[in-house]
């Protein structure tokens, strides 16, 4: 949940580190710092609580040095203060460490250091690592051996980068549960927790695996396991362009990424629709027809919005492939000692491919002999490397709130459902119907985006309230969950989602003129039933906003013609194949959340208490 950047090479590193920190600031932003190996020896460390701008202001005018490490923090151990900001150094100032993750046996390590007379300057778990590495890096001990020895004692997760004043020509980095990526440049090397910090300098990257260290020098790198056995690692090219990491004139990445959805969906579908056999072509999936026929159940796993996408995906898989399918938060699954079924297919859904709960769930399923597919956005990420699977190709998602990746997940899970279904019972005519429906999505989403002004007006009215309900059922329910999630995470308006049919079992008690209710109403066989649930809200005078399709809109107008309309506001998305309706119905809710955040003067890109890719528990 924090960001790491490191550099060693031929250039002064401070500007490179600062630029890299700006790129990963979305991963943590309550304090930041850097350490640079000074040309005349020693380390120069500058760190500040607060946003990156405060660190920038604190930097000396001249800060020369060709090796350095930097960090942007989202506090876990200890308050966000100058002292707790990374990098942390040992008492002599020889060793500097930046760290993502959590050292679980920190109390034991702190006690040991204190018993040895070490005065700890702050409250973080990371500081212990700096003292321990300095102690281990005695005369004749290579830095990597000292780092190895200390990490072998650490319980918990880490991505770490270590700088040593006595070896200013190198960095030592290591990972266990928190990403570390090496960027290979021209007589220079970078390290980062996220490719966003590397793309300006190189397209060649290599991901460290858990339990791996790298010794990084200007001319290249070598990797080794914690027991010193050399490992081999070949860099690969990233295809994301630098422009994709820029705001491109938008005030927020969130809006930019919402508007990018037509292209993101095009990319997710490109080359994957097969008209001849009315099916999907999924290059990374190695399931044979025999394997597919043997699947008795599909279990999807993800966290947060990825879990909501998984819920929607389970519905499409079950309805098209006629295979029981359900979704579960990966964070719950991993802790409940689940039965792993041999004839089940497990599907892990993740934007970052680094979310720890999802990753551990994947590893647990694999360890017990289960088969896991990944539906992942970040190429080369840990979950992507752990499983066969489907890349989303949505491009980098910088905004903390997931938008374009969410709809790409829905489309990709639609592809997976089609693929499974066409091996099983779905006939070619239905297959062709779904192929055409998927192909139409980018244009239909573009049409929804054209309604932004109307959605902004609705958002401003919602923003005037403290709370909102989102209701939906069947295919509308995961959309309602995602709508509520988006609204609360970026605007801080309290929002809850319910299956529409559950309202009468309790929550209706809260419906009042001060509680807007957003009803997600796909045009499907449940529409009439859903409209009758809406009457319960009407009766309690709750302001009603429908996000619906032409059938829902027509019902509203028909009611209006004979007296009162059904809703106070109607946001209509195009008609589509019913299995794909969640893609279109989600888009107005993203814009609703975004414009509510803007109306309330929130920073939509950096919601409080949230960080992109949750790599700690
Ligand atoms: C919400 C959001 C989070 C993520 C969740 C999983 O907008 O972005 O809820 O969906 O943290 O992250 P990934 O998909 O990277 O595994």
Question: What does this protein look like?
Answer:
The radius of gyration is 26 Å and the shape is globular. The protein has an 8-stranded antiparallel sheet, covered by helices on one side. Strands 5-6-7-8-12-13-14 form a 7-stranded antiparallel sheet, with helices on one face. It is of the alpha/beta class and 617 residues long. The mean pLDDT is 92. Helix 4 (126-136) packs across helix 5 (143-151). The chain contains 19 helices and 27 strands. The site of fructose -6-phosphate has 15 residues, from helix 9 and helix 16.
Question: What's the SSE blueprint?
Answer:
Layout: E1 3-8, H1 14-24, E2 31-37, E3 43-49, H2 52-58, E4 67-73, E5 88-89, E6 95-100, H3 106-115, H4 126-136, H5 143-151, E7 158-164, E8 170-176, E9 181-184, E10 189-192, E11 204-207, E12 212-217, E13 220-225, E14 230-231, E15 236-237, H6 253-259, H7 261-269, E16 273-274, E17 279-280, H8 289-293, E18 297-302, H9 304-321, E19 325-329, H10 330-333, E20 344-350, H11 356-367, E21 371-376, H12 382-386, E22 388-391, H13 404-423, H14 428-449, H15 452-462, E23 467-472, H16 476-491, E24 494-499, E25 517-521, H17 527-539, E26 544-548, H18 550-561, E27 569-572, H19 581-599
Parallel strand pairs: 18-19, 18-20, 20-21, 21-22, 23-24, 23-25, 25-26, 26-27
Antiparallel strand pairs: 1-4, 1-10, 2-3, 2-4, 5-6, 6-7, 7-8, 8-12, 9-10, 9-11, 11-15, 12-13, 13-14, 16-17
Bound molecules: fructose -6-phosphate.
């Amino acid at each position: 949940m924090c960001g790491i950047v490191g550099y060693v090479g031929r250039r002064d590193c401070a500007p490179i580190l600062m630029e890299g920190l700006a790129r990963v600031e979305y991963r943590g932003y309550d304090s930041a710092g850097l350490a640079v190996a000074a040309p005349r020896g020693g380390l120069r460390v500058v760190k500040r609580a607060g946003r990156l701008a405060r660190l920038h202001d604190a930097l000396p005018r001249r800060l020369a040095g060709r090796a350095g490490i930097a960090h942007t923090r989202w506090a876990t151990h200890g308050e966000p203060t100058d002292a707790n900001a990374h990098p942390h150094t040992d008492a002599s100032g020889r060793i500097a460490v930046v760290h993502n993750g959590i050292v679980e046996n920190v109390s034991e390590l702190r006690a040991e250091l204190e018993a040895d007379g070490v005065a700890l300057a702050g409250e973080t778990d990371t500081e212990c690592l700096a003292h321990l590495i300095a102690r281990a890096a005695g005369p004749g001990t290579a830095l990597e051996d000292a780092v190895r020895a200390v990490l072998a004692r650490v319980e918990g997760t880490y991505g770490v980068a270590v700088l040593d004043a006595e070896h200013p020509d190198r960095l030592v980095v290591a990972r266990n549960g928190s990403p570390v990526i090496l960027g290979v440049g021209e007589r220079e090397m970078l390290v980062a927790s996220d490719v966003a910090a590397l793309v300006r300098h190189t397209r060649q990257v290599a991901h460290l695996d858990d339990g791996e260290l790298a010794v990084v020098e200007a001319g290249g790198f070598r990797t080794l396991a914690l027991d010193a056995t050399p490992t081999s690692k070949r860099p690969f090219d990233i295809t994301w362009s630098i422009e994709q990491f820029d705001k491109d004139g938008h005030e927020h990445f969130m809006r930019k990424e919402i508007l990018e959805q037509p292209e993101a969906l095009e990319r997710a579908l490109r080359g994957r629709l097969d008209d001849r056999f009315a099916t999907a072509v999924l290059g990374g999936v190695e399931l044979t027809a025999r394997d597919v026929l043997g699947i008795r159940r599909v279990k999807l796993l993800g966290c947060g919005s990825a879990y909501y996408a998984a819920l929607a995906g389970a519905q499409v898989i079950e309805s098209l492939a006629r295979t029981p399918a359900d979704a579960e938060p990966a964070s719950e699954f991993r802790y409940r000692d689940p039965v792993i079924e041999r004839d089940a297919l497990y599907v892990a859904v993740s934007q970052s491919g680094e979310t720890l709960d999802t990753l551990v769930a994947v590893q647990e399923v694999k360890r017990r002999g289960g088969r896991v597919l990944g539906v992942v956005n970040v190429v080369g990420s840990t979950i992507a490397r752990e499983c066969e699977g489907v890349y989303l190709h949505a491009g980098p998602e910088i905004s903390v709130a997931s938008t374009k990746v969410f709809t790409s997940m829905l489309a990709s899970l639609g592809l997976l459902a089609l693929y499974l279904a066409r091996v099983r019972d779905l006939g070619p005519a239905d297959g062709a119907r779904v192929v055409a429906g998927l192909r139409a999505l980018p244009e239909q989403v573009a049409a929804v985006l054209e309604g932004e002004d109307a959605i902004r007006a609705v958002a401003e009215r919602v923003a005037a309230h403290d709370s909102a309900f989102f209701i939906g059922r069947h295919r509308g329910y995961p959309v309602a969950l995602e709508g509520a999630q988006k609204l609360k995470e970026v605007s801080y308006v309290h929002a809850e989602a319910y299956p529409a049919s559950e309202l009468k079992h309790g929550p209706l008690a809260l419906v009042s003129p001060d509680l807007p209710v957003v009803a997600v109403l796909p045009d499907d066989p449940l529409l009439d039933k859903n409209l009758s649930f809406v009457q319960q809200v009407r009766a309690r005078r709750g302001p009603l906003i429908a996000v619906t399709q032409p059938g829902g809109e027509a019902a509203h107008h028909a009611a209006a013609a004979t007296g009162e309309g059904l809703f106070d506001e109607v946001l209509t998305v195009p008609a589509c194949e019913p299995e794909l309706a969640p893609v279109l119905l989600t888009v107005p809710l993203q814009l609703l959340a975004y414009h509510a955040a803007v109306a309330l003067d929130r920073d939509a890109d950096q919601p409080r208490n949230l960080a992109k890719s949750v790599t700690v528990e």
